[in-house]
Amino acid sequence: MRKAFALPTVAIAAAAFPLLAMSPASAHEGATSYQANLASVNSSGVTGTGMVTLDGNTATVMIEANGLLAGAPHAQHFHIAALGTCPSNGLEDDADKDGFVSVTEAAKYYGAIGSSLTLTGDTSPDSGLAVDRFPTADGGTISYDRTFEVTDDVHKAFEAGTAVIVLHGVDKNGSGTYDGDIKSDLDPSLPMEATAPAACGGLKTAQMGTAPSGGAETGAGSTSGIENQGALGVGALAAVGAAAAGAVAYRRRSADQA
User: What keyword terms does UniProt attach to this protein (predicted)?
Assistant: First the structure.
């Protein structure tokens, strides 16, 4: 049975939120920071910034994005092991001419899911469409902060320059909800709007220190408490998988900030 998508229409924010200020004093010895400028895909109008600090296989992830479908959940991932780039904002990569650059059509640029950037619980590719655990774009914006473990494959992709942040979910027809006759290439019970990439950015080594310490120790961060809003349906949760796994989160704080 097709899921319902009764999501409200709310005015979209016009300007990107900057990441929190970073200080070299917060850097851990041996940690490396990566930054991504998120640009629109599928003419979504979504823009933003992502920052990831890797301390061993512990990733601290911060994402600020705006222009998203207000009140709707948006899947977000690290994609890995392809070119480390993104499709254009137009339809040059719409091979089947259905009006969308789908996940499948964009995969040649950014690869398969390496980690699912969920609010809570599993971060492996198995949670690629666990939309009840992804952020909801209140007012059209997302502010995400979580620390969790990545796999060796994901860590290697960062070092090789092939790690990419992708946000999904596009209101292509401007209806204020995920709908339309074109079905998702990942789960035909969902409309394409629910899974099509909305913003994308390749992660490159940052020139500043690491992301600041702060946020919840459990990893829910500033998006805590909204993980159950606007779920697309539990039946879609296992539609995407790839060859990586994520597990337990922890947070390290610098002694020199005490």
Answer: Signal
The predicted-structure confidence for 46-65, as pLDDT tens digits, reads as follows 999 999 999 999 999 999 99
Instruction: Look up the pTM and report it.
Output: 0.73
CATH number, residue 118? 2.60.40.200
Q: Does 7 reside within a domain?
A: no
pLDDT for 65-86, tens place per residue?
999 999 999 999 999 999 999 9
**What is the number of domains present in the chain?**
1
Task: Pick left, alpha or beta for residue 38 (phi over 0 → left; psi -120 to 50 → alpha; otherwise beta).
Answer: beta
The DSSP letter of residue 58 is E
The set of residues, in sequence order, having a beta carbon less than 8 Å from that of 47 and lying 6+ positions away, is 16, 38, 39, 40, 65, 66, 67, 199
Residue pair 13/139 in contact (Cβ under 8 Å)? The answer is yes
DSSP for residue 184 = P
Return the number of other C-beta atoms located less than 10 Å from residue 79's C-beta: 29
- Kindly compute the dihedral angle of the four CA atoms of residues 222, 226, 228, 230, in this order, to the nearest 10 degrees: -120
Asked, for residue 16, whether it belongs to a domain, the answer is no
